[in-house]
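Protein in question filed below.

…
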Amino acid sequence: MTKVAELHDRVIAHFEGKAGELGLTLPQALLLRQLDSAIPMSEIAGKLHCDASNVTGIVDRLEARGLVERRTRQDDRRVKEIVATTQGERMRNRVSALLSEIPGLSQMPADELATLLHLLSVALGRLPEEE
């Protein structure tokens, strides 16, 4: 099991370092990565595995940089959604590209990487189609 923890640490360190090069903290990069569509503020904390009180600060800083904006949901004005701006979409694409550059994984042959991803899916209790 220590190899899984070691891989996790390597991925997080890589992602955090590369996000820093883009001027983002790890939570900001992770939030941007989730924004392929509008997400209610109430769901973001769960996706980021953090306390809801932290989400406001993360969103505030991304909004100040012009990367996201808050919108009121049309069908329920009480719900605030976060959506990427055009500049935020460009940054989201750059953040997503960071995941294809993970040392040790990006150099793996495609068949071995597919096997690893399948085994990780099984370990997580997910079927490959669910991802």
